Amino acid sequence: MTALGGRVADEERGGVSRPNRVAMLEKLADLDAQHGIAVAGGGEKYVERHHARGKLTARERIELLVDPGSAFLELSPLAGWGSDFTVGASVVTGIGVVEGVECMISANDPTVKGGASNPWTVRKIFRASQIAEENNLPTISLVESGGADLPTQKEIFIPGGKLFRDLTRASARRQPTIALVFGNSTAGGAYVPGMSDYTVFVRGGAKVFLGGPPLVKMATGEESDDESLGGAEMHARVSGLADYLAEDEHDAIRIGRRIVVRLNRGRTAGVPVLSSGFSAVAAGEKLGNHRSAGGSRRGSFADPDADPEGLLDLIPTDLKEPFDPREVIVRIVDGASEHNGRPFDEFKPLYGTSLVTGWAEIHGRPIGILANAQGVLFSEEAQKATQFIQLANSSDTPLLFLHNTTGYMVGKDYEQGGIIKHGAMMINAVSNSTVPHLSVIMGASYGAGNYGMNGRAFDPRFLFTWPSAKSAVMGPAQLAGVLSIVARAAAEAKGQAYDEEGDAGMRAMVEQMVEEQSLPYALSGMLYDDGVIDPRDTRTVLAICLSVIENAPIKGAEGFGVFRP
User: Fold this and answer.
1) Domain segments of the chain: what residues?
2) Are 16-280 and 314-473+519-565 in the same CATH fold?
3) Which residues fall within 8 angstroms of residue 552, CB to CB, at 6 or more apart?
4) Could you tell me which residues are beta bridge partners of residue 93?
5) Which of 51, 146, 208, 270 is most exposed, with minimal Cβ within 10 Å?
């Protein structure tokens, strides 16, 4: 496992300047810094205080829980970015392998306001629950939270009930739920262990009650202490809420791993692993290009035919400049071998050339790929995508969408040629496709092109962005220009002189605002993706996702909506 600094290549090789690489490396350095903020949690002072109490941090608990050397795919690490709350939203969520079983792991971060939940915490946990449901994953909750952030309770209380609903429905679906309680689990939080299938309480640490001693005193006048009211021993011996009583945090994690062994979920041998150590992929620790130890469920596979390092050279600093997505594909899919013959079998290569479609494998698992080539989607591209999506569903093959699109083409000729109905046909196919979808936003993802390419609103199983990504209703200059044209027409209709100086200021302000709102950190902060990743990690991240989705049956759609001719 190597950190970012160990993977940064020279900015110039062989005397040839690589401006795209230089720009991407700068973005990656900033991304590393942003992830560092999330990893820091509440900061050094509160981490030291936590350790002084003999407690492990959230990530230390996860590191001990997951199998040695296995990858931990952290999700939504930048949740809350740009808000008044600490980046990461006081909870760590992600997918890890525990005793060979892929599990959704959620760990409160007690170094951030005692692990109290804010509005972004709730949304982040909801997203983790959705992923667990869609992919049939057991959930392990590492609990230590003071409950809701009271100043923002109005944004938490009503939607927060979904957390408990999700736990009970997971149990009904036979998706096991396990709660390891290390500290406070107060008020509504007490229902997390209360609604979990299995509970482990740490002696002297776990405190689980609907109301603590002060609240009980206020409500009933009763005098009580933490242990008699909600301590681990009381719940193990008296209330029965604790299934297992752990001697310390390490013992709780050991018991949690043994619970997973007894779930009878089978082992997932094809999960990518690291050469050593623990990796929070999205939190700045880089996976590199490692093979799965023990091979793939699908058999052997070859490394990509082109070096993934070259991905840093591909994305132009100006997203208006096109790039060939085949250069991305050849760096993330399995290389040629006796098993697969060619790394990428392109479908309809001479038709609708602004969209590249075809079949490949990643870590031995089949995938259908749709990748934007020249940015704009025309009618031909929309019809080609529709057919390809139907074919993927007929063969039960997952789909990968690689975004770099400014949207569907506009103009009189294109409107008359049916661009609306053809774009709607593609969106219909995406909406009603039932094979798992994965999305990576590499560059631009504007307008309805974001929808047709399976953006967040269309519930891809996983969606990641590169640091070069931008997503909005349209590009900043286009949006500012449209507003200017509308304002100018309104002034003319009223017979008023148009304020050119004011127009220039308005356009500059709008362009800056849209630019800031469409950047990957802002989108990731609002949980519109599952994380911003280093392009070189794309293959490994996708391999983990493809392994995860195999925990649930993969079955294509048997029918689609009405396609307008």
Assistant:
1) 16-280, 314-473+519-565, 476-517
2) yes
3) 134, 135, 136
4) 75, 106
5) 51
Residue 394, CB half-sphere, CA atoms under 13 Å: how many? 6
* Domain covering 16-280 assigned CATH 1.20.810.10 in the classification: no
Rounded (10°) CA dihedral 490, 491, 492, 495: 130
Q: Do 433 and 458 contact (CB within 8 A), yes or no?
A: no
User: Between 3.90.226.10, 2.60.120.280, 3.40.50.300, 3.30.420.10, what CATH number should domain 314-473+519-565 receive?
Assistant: 3.90.226.10
Residue 498, token pair as written in the block: 């148009």
Looking from the CA of 50 toward its CB, the CA atoms found within 13 Å total: 25
Q: Two tokens at 530?
A: 């599952």
Instruction: Answer for the pair 444, 470: CB distance below 8 angstroms, yes or no.
Output: yes
- How far apart CA 182 and CA 149 sit, in angstroms, is 19
pTM of the complete model beyond 0.85: yes
**What Å distances lie between residue 197 and 93, 168, 241, CA to CA?**
19, 9, 11
The shares of helix, strand and coil residues in the chain, as percent rounded to the nearest 5, are 45, 20, 35
In sequence order, the β-bridge partners of residue 17 are 12
The residue behind tokens 């009603």 is 432
Q: What is the crossing angle of helices 379-394 and 419-432, to 10°?
A: 20
Please state, rounded to an integer, the average pLDDT across all residues of the chain.
Answer: 87
Distance separating alpha carbons of residues 564 and 422, to the nearest angstrom: 8
Complete DSSP assignment for 12-34: EETTEE-HHHHHHHHHHHHHHHH
Do 379 and 417 contact (CB within 8 A), yes or no? yes
Tokens of 37: 């903020």
| pLDDT tens column, 485-540 | 888 888 888 888 888 888 788 778 877 776 666 689 999 999 999 999 999 999 99
